[in-house]
Design a protein that fits this description.
The structure is a single chain. The chain is mostly helical. It has two domains: 77 residues; 71 residues, Winged helix-like DNA-binding domain superfamily/Winged helix DNA-binding domain (Arc Repressor Mutant, subunit A, Orthogonal Bundle). Helix 4 crosses helix 7, helix 5 crosses helix 7 and helix 6 packs across helix 7. It starts with a helix and ends in a 24-residue tail after the last helix. About 11% of the residues have low confidence.
């Protein structure tokens, strides 16, 4: 299969899209791992789709690497003292957000991560979550609201579960319960 298809894959992507030839190195190993899923007689379109996905992954990795590199360069050129209070505040904020995120339901966490961390648009995130874009927008709105509530509750003394219902105690304080 590879000897007849490799020249066609070597020409993909047409038009010299950025990404070079590195993704091509991942196309055939991916095909080999999923050889049972390659449609008989339709290997070339399947390989093109696999090459497109490998290219997209490579571009995502490259963009993330470039963003991180630029952030590191920006921090270094600002001349900030890395042990200063600003860094400790950033760490505290990050820990608070992670704790608030951990308090949410898994679907809320996934919606927020797809938009904020993976930088997907609503349509792509909706496709990942197997719902319509309108449904995803509602889920995202609710997830953001729950996260904000969780962060406010965590900042308050005795903050807890953002979905918990607070009830008055069943017995007045100081009352003993004897068995």
């Amino acid at each position: 299969m590879t000897s007849t298809i490799r020249p066609s894959c070597a020409r993909y992507p047409p038009g010299g899209r950025r990404g070079g030839t590195r993704h091509r190195g991942g196309t055939f190993p991916a095909a080999w791992r999923r050889l049972d899923r390659v449609p008989a007689g339709e290997a070339l379109p399947w390989l093109y789709a696999t090459a497109r996905k490998c290219l997209a992954n490579e571009l995502r990795r490259r963009d993330l690497r470039e963003r991180l590199d630029s952030r590191v360069r920006a921090e270094a050129t600002r001349g900030q003292d890395m042990a200063g209070p600003e860094l400790s505040e950033q760490v505290a904020d990050r820990l608070a957000v992670l704790a608030g995120l951990a308090a949410l339901r898994p679907n809320d966490q996934e919606a927020l991560r797809l938009i904020e961390w993976e930088q997907l648009d609503v349509a792509a995130a909706a496709q990942v979550m197997s719902c319509s874009a309108a449904t995803f927008r509602v889920r995202l709105h609710r997830a953001r609201r729950r996260l904000a509530r969780a962060l406010v509750q965590a900042a308050e003394p005795g903050g807890g579960d953002p979905d918990a219902v607070t009830r008055p105690p069943a017995f007045p304080s100081g009352t003993e319960i004897r068995a």
